[in-house]
Here is the input.
Amino acid sequence: MISWRERRPFDFILLVAALALCCYGLILIYSGSLASAGGKVDVLSGPIGRQAAFALVGLGLCLAFSRMDYRFLAQGSSGMYVGLILALLFVLILGTQGTFGSRRWIDIAGTHVQPSEIGKLVVILVLAKYLSDNQENIKDLRVFLSSLLIAAAPALLVFAEPDLGSASIFLLVWLGMTIMAGCDVRHVIGSLGMLLALSPFALLVLVTDYQRERVSTFLDPARDALGSGFNTLQAEIGVGSGGWFGKGLTEGTQTQLDYLRTQTTDYVFSVLGEELGFIGAMILFALFIILLMRGLRAASISQDVFGQLVAVGVVIFILFQAFINIGVNIRLFPVTGIPLPFISQGGSSLITVFIAIGLLESVIMRHKQVSL
Amino acid sequence: MRPYSTGRKPWRSEPFQEETDDLQAARGKLFYFGLLVFFVFAVLTLQLARMQLVNGEAYRLRAENNRLRQVPVVPPRGLIYDRNGVPLVENRASFAAAVVAADVPEERQTDIAVALQEVTGVPAGEIEDTIEARRKSNDPFTPAVIKENLNEEVAFRLREKLADLPGARVVVEPRREYTQGSLMAHVLGFVGAIDQEEYDRLAASGYRLDDRIGKAGVELSYESLLRGAPGIREVETDASGREIRVLGEKAAKSGSSVVLSIDLDLQRKVEEYLRAAMGRSRNAASIVIDVRTGEVLAMVTLPTYDNNLFTGDVDEAALEKLLTDPAKPLLNHAIAEMYPPGSTFKQITGLAALQEGVANAGTQITSLGYLDVENEYAPGKFDRFRDWSALGTLDFYRGVAMSSDVYFYYLAGGYVRGGKQVFQGLGADRLAGWAKRFGLGERTGIDLPGESEGLAPDPAWKERTIGEPWLLGDTYNYGIGQGYVAATPLQMVLVTAAIANGGNVLTPHVVKELRDVEGQAVSIARQYVRRNLGVDARNLAVLREGMRQAVADGTARTGAAKDVAVAGKTGTAEFGERRPNGTYLEHGWFTGYAPFSNPEIAVVVFLEQGNGAANAAPVAAKIFDYYFGRRNLAGGAR
Here is the structure.
């Protein structure tokens, strides 16, 4: 078992923050699923039970990963990367059709599995490995471009699903990690400039009608208030009507009268905003900030570059998942299918973020060993 | 690059190398990542504060508007009875399939339309058009009916499927059913779906796009009373429009019921007699009125139509036929069309002459069968005005009784022979003044829509309208109810009623009283007497005696009833273009009252293309016979 010496550096604050977020999520999922369940949710068999089960699996994996030396994962990272690319191709060709014709899932044993979620961790590991292996010539353009290639391949595949949100997470993670790894700032700025220069072209050619529709709906949801603008508008109304303290858990009219759609996944934050108000949101933000700062702490005490990059990658990943998801709920961004880490209903996402916490713990638990 | 996998448990522990300077340098950057974390949540917090704390109230209002809907509660429409309490209309429940556009999810619209097509048989495309049109309208929450009059089985099947069809509804609509159909169609009118023009006008008074509204007859003129006041139920609805619970209700106020002055049995008889007398007449109309109160006891216009045609889905072919029929069956000819009154107008000329001192009972005038009048503009040239016969010398009574045109030419226009005024007539202006006093040229104010004013011309009118000077011949024609003067059958029966009741020109009405839900009579403030003619009883008596003689042994003999003394006047009015054989088409009129000594009712019978004595008067005789005969049977205690 874990000896005291080993346990002492284990970051309980980090794990407690993660579990607290997860419980917060369970409460919101409970309230959000009341309406569709006709006012009565069986805690054990319904969406709560499933989510709790996923959380337990996630917690188990988290502890397992924290016990494992994260450097061990570096060895297998190229294999995982190949597996990820194959899985994403498989999704694209044979995946389960979702709304608006997007393909994001593979069905395994009756469960939707979304490879792009765990794929974000794989990309973090691969990038961390590649960037830490090339520390001597980190300023080379060749290294920079290779790292871009590593992130861009899965990003393009999920973009084609289409899942613009996840694609941007891949790129943001890459961006954060290259900066952290010490890549040439001019390369970073240059690539960003190129991306901006290409974006009008991309909007015209690469973006599908469905994405254009989402963007125009974002700009003016009232244009089609009863159709495609419905979700955006109703989520906004839900959050806005929450005020300081919210209408009380399970008392939100928008949530309980079914005005919010996907209110346990993409729009779970609207449930929080409406029922628990500004104060409820501040508690959520505080938990996220604690969790992310503990993640940065892991990066700062890491004894090697690989661990440091993994920690930073995980922080960027969770930070921007949260930012984009909440931003969609409060009309900062157009609709994308990004889950809110720890909160949104869905196994792939929950297990992924718990493994990510496990990686952080693994980095933290090994920082003392150099002094052994 | 250094392999990590050495030792037995490579994933457990592995000594690190010496810390590099790079690692130290990289740690400095973590500060900025920390800033980024706070920055991101600061942005979210700011936006959240703007929404929840600054604009929270506005969003709360929108959330409330979302879930709270005000559903109108339409009260049952008031019923209509005849004067003896016979129900003339019933409210039948009828099922209709409807959609609430706002509740139909756009992505499921086609499925829902197809499912509705399966049940109702209405093409899915049509249903989608309806949904889309309503979604774009300013009232997407009002159910739009896609199929009316569902039979109960279909309605039941649809109701079972509603849970899977958000936005679909089965609405129960009260449907008006007129028990008497065509017999009462023109008096009752009908109720139909509100049209855009009506909606624009009435939306402010609480009408909605799916409302039904009185379109004609009593249904139109008493719309506001029959309709009652719709209540409002405030309900909480979920996103698919299902009512979750009722939060409050303002009760609807039921419509008042209406009791007509119409006597249904009499109405039926009048129609029967009139129909039998129509012959080649294109239209016919008859009114029976109580001369004391202005209550209309019967009002018939022919041809008529079945007003049940308009209550449900309108049969377009049948409607087209009604609209293109030259006899205009949708028009109430008793009040909405004006005709030259012919000799029935002599009642007005006669009374005016007596009251103005132009004539008295003993005034003697000789009819040679014509009157030659020297042309005002071409001296030495004579125009000939014909009488219907050479009736010899007549006093006032016989002038009325024999309906001598020459007698009334004298009264109206006087007579000048050899440049000498041998008889001073009323003149056009005084005659027009009396015609107007009797109510010609103005609406009678009856409580039915669509009334015509008729026309009581005077010289100024002719100058203004036709641009020609008034001629003496115009005055002569005026005196016998020809020329420009025109009146509705209703106006003429009121002329007779005024003579019968002592000079009161009445405001007629078809509604006797209103009843509230409990059946209690509700008073209606109403003026029965429009004006008094201000004539001497002596003069009235002279005219009445003339009219009695007309029926007793004059031109209106065919109007005599078996058991009651009738006073009346026939008219056979020429109209239209002169035909090749020198004659004109003629309308037949009879207007009279009974009993002579103690007048109760007045009757007008009008036959478009008919003869007064031959066609119109006998109908009136049958009406008097029926009315008084029935009363005698009942023991005279009515």
